[in-house]
Design goal:
Distance between the termini: 33 Å
Number of strands: 3
Oligomer: single chain
Shape: globular
Structural class: mainly alpha
Strand content: 5-15%
Strand order of the largest sheet: 1-2-3
Largest sheet: 3 strands, antiparallel
Number of helices: 7
Order of helices and strands: HHHHHHHEEE
Length: 206
């Protein structure tokens, strides 16, 4: 069982089988674990404690899985402050995406494209920046799940005035000369004291 499974497994079991004895308690405990993990490892600047750009998307997906399940049943699992961190984390995914539409190869895992990420995350934590940047990077036909489509369609693209950004908590500096697919791009890895040592990161920081 992976770390991601252990983060969400208890909540999923309790959530999907409420008819079983004690499973309501399992659900409450599982949700407490998820929220605690979010508070401890997802930073206010929209980055996460593991210093690997591709791996962060896998972890973000764990939170999206449980949030989508709850939203489909008319519930919201996270506080406004937690949802804001998750929205900023979605925005970091676009900042870290190269002009060719793929995430930067920093840390473990093969960088995925953003089709799956946008379909399953963008409607959960709507962001005008995400919608505008995704379109500039070639993702013009995003197809969210049915219960997320309304939120995605209602999101207005933001103006992409910024081309460079510092993420002090996660330890990234991202620079680009624009958002065109033939643009210049550079990501500098400079881990802060907040990130986990050796957690899916490589020994290549500045």
């Amino acid at each position: 069982m992976s770390a991601g499974d252990t983060r969400v497994a208890l909540f999923n079991v309790g959530y999907h089988f409420p008819e079983f004895r004690h499973f309501a308690r399992i659900r409450r405990f599982g949700l407490a674990v998820i929220r605690r993990h979010l508070d401890r490892t997802v930073f206010a600047d929209g980055t996460q404690a593991e210093h690997s750009v591709p791996y962060q998307q896998y972890i973000l997906t764990d939170f999206a899985i449980v949030a989508a399940q709850a939203l489909a049943n008319g519930e919201r699992l996270f506080t406004k402050e937690q949802d804001e961190r998750l929205r900023k984390w979605c925005e970091f995914q676009l900042w870290a995406t190269k002009p060719d539409g793929r995430l930067c190869e920093l840390g473990d895992h093969v960088p995925p494209d953003l089709d799956y990420f946008l379909a399953d995350h963008a409607g959960l934590w709507p962001s005008g920046f995400v919608k505008a940047a995704a379109a500039k990077l070639g993702y013009t036909k995003v197809k969210p799940a049915a219960h997320l489509t309304k939120a995605w369609r209602a999101t207005k693209p933001a103006k992409l005035d910024e081309t460079s950004k510092v993420f002090p908590d996660g330890g990234y500096v991202i620079m680009r000369d624009g958002w065109a697919k033939d643009g210049m791009y550079m990501l500098v890895s400079a881990p802060s004291a907040k990130v986990l040592p050796k957690a899916h990161s490589h020994f290549d920081p500045m």
